[in-house]
Design brief:
single chain, about 230 residues, mainly alpha, 2 domains, membrane, transmembrane helix, transmembrane, Phage_phiKZ_Orf197
Length: about 230
């Protein structure tokens, strides 16, 4: 219960009750920003309010002090290139402190890590990520569409976007199957078809359409088969 309460306090303090103007001011003035200390105070007060137990005052104080240290480190060391990386490091450290407090109160039981069902799900998730991407890429390697300079077709896209889209769609399909909502798989197929239709229609190239169709069917097929085998 302590973990859930402190996570809720963290979400409210770090996202809902922190205006963008505060973030900009902290990034420009760093430790001299008054909003850094106000932000830490809000986290401390929220933690105390959600716990609502005078005996746990030290937990709220620990959350506040650790939040100041982590935020101060982020503001001191991050730059434009590492800003995204430090955002996730910051969040992981905050959640780590909360998890540590919860572990102190014996709220966590890690016995589930040893169960066969959990290990099977982890194995499936790992397989549906990079291994599946590599397998599909290898299978389609002989049919890779020609670059834009040869076809005159605009094929510009985000770096590695196709890889991550494939991973996300496979994980979503796997999730739908494991929770017995097969209609979600149909929704995914329909949604991807709609988003892809305009691009393929603009390209007016049958080979590209077939390439995308084969890749999509392989991706969905792997996720469906994996889901069935795990169940």
């Amino acid at each position: 219960m302590i973990f859930i309460l402190l996570i809720l306090a963290h979400l409210l303090g770090d996202f809902v009750l922190q205006p963008n103007a505060w973030v900009v001011d902290k990034e420009s003035k760093k430790l001299k920003s008054k909003y850094l200390y106000l932000h830490v105070l809000i986290h401390t007060v929220l933690s105390f309010i959600f716990l609502w137990n005078l005996e746990l005052w030290w937990v709220a104080a620990l959350v506040g002090i650790s939040h100041f240290i982590i935020d101060a480190a982020k503001l001191s060391f991050q730059n434009i290139k590492t800003k995204k990386r430090w955002f996730f490091i910051d969040q992981i450290l905050h959640i780590g402190v909360i998890a540590g407090v919860s572990f102190y109160f014996n709220e966590f039981n890690f016995e589930f890590l040893k169960t066969q069902n959990f290990l099977k799900i982890v194995m499936a998730i790992v397989f549906l990520s990079s291994p599946s991407s590599i397998i599909i890429k290898t299978l389609l390697s002989s049919w890779t569409p020609a670059p834009e300079t040869q076809t005159g077709i605009q094929t510009e896209s985000l770096s590695s976007a196709g890889k991550y889209i494939g991973i996300l769609e496979r994980l979503l399909v796997f999730t739908f199957i494991t929770v017995n909502h097969w209609e979600g798989v149909g929704f995914m197929v329909a949604a991807k078809s709609v988003f892809r239709f305009s691009d393929l229609a603009q390209a007016k190239q049958r080979k590209l359409t077939e390439y995308v169709l084969i890749g999509t069917l392989l991706s969905f097929g792997m996720a469906v088969l994996t889901g069935i085998l795990i169940k």
